[in-house]
Each structure stands twice: as structure tokens, then as C-alpha cells.
Amino acid sequence: MFEQKTAKETCEILQCDGKRGLSSAEAKKRLEENGPNQLLDGPKKSRIASFVEQLNDPLIYVLLAAAAISLLLHEVSDAVIILAVVGLNAFVGMVQEGKAQKALDSLKKLTQPKACVIRDGAEREIEAADLVLGDLVCLEAGRQVPADLRLLKTDNLQVEESTLTGEAVPVMKDAAWQDSPGKGEVPLGDRKNMAYMSTIVTGGRGYGVVTAAGMDTEIGRIADMMRESEEELTPLQKKLGELGKILSFLSLGICAALFGIAIIQKRNVFDMLLTAISLAVAAVPEGLPAVVTLCLALSVTRMVKVNTIIRRLPSVETLGAVNVVCSDKTGTLTQNKMTVTACFADQKMQEAQKLKVSELKHFFYAMTLCNDATIKEERIGDPTELALLDLSNRYGMTREELEADMPRYAEIAFDSDRKMMSTFHRGKTERMMYTKGAPDRVLSGCSSVLLNGKAVPLTKTHRQQIESAVGQMASLALRTLALACGSDAGRREEKNLTFLGLVGMQDPIRPEAVGAVQTFRQAGVSTVMITGDHVETAFAIGKQLGIVNRIDECMTGEELSGLAEEELSRKLKKVRVFARVSPANKVQIVKGFQKDGNIVAMTGDGVNDAPSLKAADVGVAMGKNGTDVARQASDMILTDDNFATIEKAIEEGRGVYENIRKSVIFLLSSNLGEIMTMFVAVLLGLSSPLKSAHILWINLITDSLPALALGVDQNDGESLMRRPPRKAKESLFAQGGLSRTVFYGVLIAGISLTAFFTVPWQILRAQGLPFSLEQIAPLLMQEAVVSRAQTYAFTVLGMSQLFHAVGMRDVHKSFFFMNHLENRMMILACIAGFALQFAVTELPFLVGAFGTARLDRTEWLYLTGLAAFPLLAHELLVLFSGDWEAHIMQTPEENCDPSGRPDCSGQAGPL
Q: Would the N or C end of the chain have less CB density within 10 A of its end CB?
């Protein structure tokens, strides 16, 4: 609104004096009425709230229900074990997210910004938080704009607004500029008479009146947009939620079926209720939430080593499904540091790294002396002037040393009409004038050109060569400045100058970003660049990065705002660079991709990126140069601000999903084996082959340890990044996962029942009686017989899970071709599992607790042979699928087949 008002009208509206400012009493009154000039912080989660949040999971609900029913039936030990698992899972998640929050807090700036204001007619420095509407704020190079201001006076004032607009090049401000009413809303970056909170003054000076403070500023609006964004569940959370619902219905179905069987078979209803609870417990993989949480937590620890802080655990897995990466340009794909990359001197193009100072003395003097920036103690000034000082410093020249020999005694400041600046220096023998500015304006004031160290008349051919060089630099999206010099004859006119040359500069792309974009393309991930730059500059940068090849793959924010939803969807299929965008446009782009079924990661560092970071499936903020608002909105933070680090994060995410998927299939096939073992026995009218304590022991010990080992299995990262990303709706049981779960579940049930029936079969054979249900049922009513039979089933079921886990490391590779040393945790899990299974049948206090019977050497050998059937089945499946033969024929160097499936020794393939 205020950009359409004159300075006088603005002061009248705000009831302030445009020269003396507010009185101290009025400022105090307004501060009490409107509150401090601060952005509202989001409420911090307490540890209790964080702990409770970890319990918000359908699988956890099933476990809590099982614990509650166990308590009702006085099965206290079962309930305690289940609750302990749930508590451990929530504790691990809470601790990990707490660590991420501490790392985030450590990145915050320790000092609060100050503001220079005019009150009671005098300048004073106050806390920026104490600013009120109507305050007069003084601005100068190096200061941060503390609130939204309508500028009243400007003297070559330049403001860098990249945190709001994404454009790194400073904007020249003009207090006299006024927007014409009725032309529609002017883009924020084009409002020349306004300065906005959080932007940085890079040159000149001026002052303005506060028109908005705190949450009413442009940043405040963005913060509001960020809070309105709802937090979406990750794909894995959705899949595990669906799994939890399925298991809940399965548990209810089992209970209902057993009650029906109890009525039909006229069995004790209370006993059947206990059996039903046991089966319900068997249907739920108690260790799965803990396995998933620990897998993600271990992955987070690994990612810290590659400069990544994960704020939300599930976002690690989501990265593996990302197929669109929307990236802010400035500071993410580029270095956010203007750098001279090309020069035109001696009438020829030269690389900035290969200049000869001895031949280009005045060329360097011009860029160093005609300069108001400083880099001695801290970097203050216009980025283009800083880039010139960086270049001269590289060749051993500093502004301070040159000015000591040639002090400045006068200057003609830059203004937007002339588009030039000139400085005058007193040398030992002569007075020199150095000029820099827009090439066309500087060239129009030149009558000669420096060639081979001598000034020669500027001919038409020279002009054509210079104009051609300007065009060449413009085609490369370089910001071009011309340099000239002359003698001060007392007139101080920018005429009859000697043309020295051109410098072309840009915010250079990060070298590693080019490789990352290429890797993403191979991995089926599209890179989309979003920037506040003009479309021509954006296209040139996008082309250098390999994101686009044609200008029609670019679009402006203004064009984007007028699109209907269907048209936007069509455009998003081919447009890969968006220029001159607003924060609302960024959110529109992210949501547009999401509506088309894409999983979107958004990277950014500025306040203007915060709403889109929040809206994306994975928000990625910069840790070094990013704003606090952006970090708070993100799911993960790159501590090295390196776009290429996202490539490692996506690779890690894909590996984590593969491992979690293996763990889920392993656990559910084991649980299916338990359910079928018990259900078949009950259906036949026999005693239960397993007690509730046996099932919990298997689910929490012999299942969970190998499942954790599967969760940290090594994957072939290069192979994973050659595959297309999985679809958002892809089931955990895709690619043969369901058939594999059922097959191994049936097999484990079969060998467990075989072990269970072995004891009565041996007794009947010794007595010369036939093996039939009529003969078995009475035997299994005897405590000693059923105890030993249950021990057999319990032992085989427990050990078979360990053999099954070894094969699950890679379902396409033989056990004999796996590199088992690459997963030492699996070796330890198997050793611990076998030892614990041995202890539960041999140590007296465990024998009493679990109601088992001690076994002799022959029994152990027999039961171990039965338990090994899952691994034997794995070998047969590999053999008949042809993978076994492929491994024999494969040389060590051929570690991937044409389909992209990894065949590297010991590395996991797709399930």
C-alpha cells in the first residue's frame, strides 16, 4: 500500500514527523499498544509432548490394546514386556528428535539486531524489537533493515533482498519512486521506495519510516503462511499405518474365529480367550516399531557424518521416494557470492584467472580504487564491488595499499540516471580519474582505448569489438561493468576517457551441483530451479547446470499465478526453471507437483523459502547461510550448504527403505508362521503349541535382533541411484514381497508343527500305536508331554527365524556368495539368538519362567536341522531362478546386471 503513497502522505497516515521522528513518550505508548517488533516463535515441544507424539502410530495402538487385554486377563508379565517395548521405541524417537533440535538451536545467531533511529530529533541506537510504527530508521552499508520501511530519503542506497526475493543482485532504492495506483500489485523486488525487514544494506545510505513491524511485515506474512501448512505423513508412516490397521482387523478376526471354534468344539471359553490373546500377540510384530525407529536413528547418525542434520526421523525414508527436487538458486545451486569470471582487456577476452598485472595496471587500479566496498576486517559493500576487490586481491593488490599511494580526494557518486561512478586520486606525479559503470554509458564517454599499454584513438572497429564482448558476456548471463580512466584537468567531467576493459561477473554455480543434477536424472529424479532472478539469467544458469536446454522450459511467477489447476499440471510436466517467483508461487509449485502424485523435496535458505519448505514432503534448509525461519520450517538441514549433499541423503533414504522393507517382510513372515502354527493346532482341537511368553520371546528377541541387523545392512548406493524412485503408493509388499511373506510363513509353520508333533509321534511309535488325532490329543493333555512338545516347537520357531534372516539379506543371492563380514551385526544377532534360545531351555530359572524342557545333544541336532529349512528353501529358490548360476559366472568387476539390480558381494538387492 505505502509504495503508492508519497513520503508526505505516508508520514501523515502514520502520524509522525518526517524529520524529527517520534517523541520518546509517543514511541513508548505505541510499543505498549502494538507490542514488540518481533516474529512470533512457534511453541517448543516439551519432552512429554515429544514422547507422546512418538506413540501416535497405529502399530503402537495395537500393542497398547494387547497390553490392556493382557492386564485384564492377569497376564501381567506379557503386559509389562509389551509396554517396555512401546516405551523404548518412544524414548529412542524422543531422544533423536531432541538431538536434532539442539543442533538447530546451536545454529541460531547469538545477538539481537540493533536499529539506528531518530527520536526527539536526535539519532540513537535501540534494540530492533523496540521499533514502532512511525519510527524514523537510518540505514547505511552493512546494516540489516529492522522493519518494513517507506523510504523518505536515499543516497545511492542499495539493498540485497535475496532472503525475500531469492535474487542476489542488490536493488537500487529510490525514495522518489512511486507506484501508479490501479496497475495491480507490484512484485516485491520492484518496489524501489520500500525496504523490508531482514534484508541487508550493501551500499549508500538513507532513512525511512516504519510502516509495518513484527508479524505485519512481509516476513511476518510468510511466517503466517508457514504455520498454516499442515504436516503431512511420510509415505512410510502411511504404509505402516495401513499395516497397523490390517493387523488390528486380523487380531479381531482371529479372536472371533477362536470363539466360534470354542463354541463348536465345546471347549473352555476362558482358556480359548487366553489362546486368542496369544494369537493376537502373535499377529503383531512387537519389535517392528522399535526396529523402524532404530533403523532411522542409526541412519540419522550416519547422515551427520555427511553434513546433514535430520529434524524428523521419518523424513530419512521419505527421501528415498523423492522424484522431484525443487531448489532455490541463490546459495543452494550457486555460491551466493558474486565472482568475476571473465574479462575483456587489450581488446580481447581473457579468463579472470590468467590476467597479467604488469600489462593491465590501470585496469586493476580502476576496479580497486573506484570502489566503496571493504573486505579488510569484514565484507561490507555491494556484491559487485566486493567481487572486484576479490579479483584484485587475488593478484596481490588491496584497496588500502593503493589508496595510501593514491588517496581519493573527490568522487562523482553513482546514480541511476548516469549508471556510472567516478573517483579522483592524487598520485605522486599526476591526478587520475577512474570510472566504472554500465558499458554503453562508459563507452559513450570514451575517446581512446588502452591497447598494449598505450592509449590509442577509439575507432569504429574497437567499438564493435567491445560491443561484441558485451553481447558475449550477456549471453552467458554475466553482469557486465566497463572500466575507464582519465586525467583530472579540473573540470571533473566523465568525458574524453580512455577505455580500459570489461569485467563479467556472476554468482557462480557450485561445481558439485552439476554432477548432482546429472546423478538425479539417472536416478529418475527431476531437478527444478526456482529463483527471483529475471528469466534470461535463470535460463542461462539452468542451462549451465544441465536442468534446461530451451527457453520454453522456463516460466515466470507472473505467468504461473494466472494458471488454472489443469493448465498448471500440464506446464509442470515440462517446465523446470521458474523465475521472478514469490513465496506464494513457490508453495503453488510444490503443491502442483504433489497433486500429480510426486514426492517433492524443496531446498532453500531464505525467509521466502520457508512456506514451501513446510509444504514439501521433505524440506531441506541450509545450515551455514540459511535463516532461522527456513531452518525451523525444514525436515533436514545441510550444514555445508551443498546441493550435492542431497544426493547422498536420497541414496541413504533409498537404502533405509530397502532395509526397512526387508525387516518388515522378515518379521511378518515370521509372525505369520506363529499364527498358522497355533491356529492349525487349535483348529484340530489340540493344545496350543506355544505359550504367550514363547511368542513374546520370539518376537522381541529372536526376531528383533536379526531384524535390526537387516535394518543396517549395506546396500550398493550406485545401483540404488540407477533405479527410478519408488512410487508413493507402492506397497511394502510390492515386487514379490507378499508371495515371499506367505511362502516363508507357511514353511515356518510347517516345520514348527512338525517339531510339535515329533514328541507324541515318538511316544506313539515306541508304544506301537498309530499316529492319529485321536491318539495325539490325549497325549498332549499330559503336562510333561505338552511341555516337551511346546519346547520343540518353540526352539524350531525361534532358530528358524535366524536362518530365515540370513537369507533375507539378499533374496537374489546365494548364502555362499554373500560377504557376511559386511554385516557384522547379523553375525552377532545370530550368535546371540542361538545362545539365548539355548539358555531358555537349559538354564533352570529360564526353564521355570518359560515352562520349557531341557534338551539333549541329539534333540538339538534334529531341531537345528528342521530350523534350517528356510535357508535351504532360499538356496533352492536362488538356484531355480538362475541367480545362483549367474553368481558363479560373474567376475568380481561385474557387480551389477543390466536391470540395475545390485549383485555386489554382501549387498542387498530389491525384495
A: N
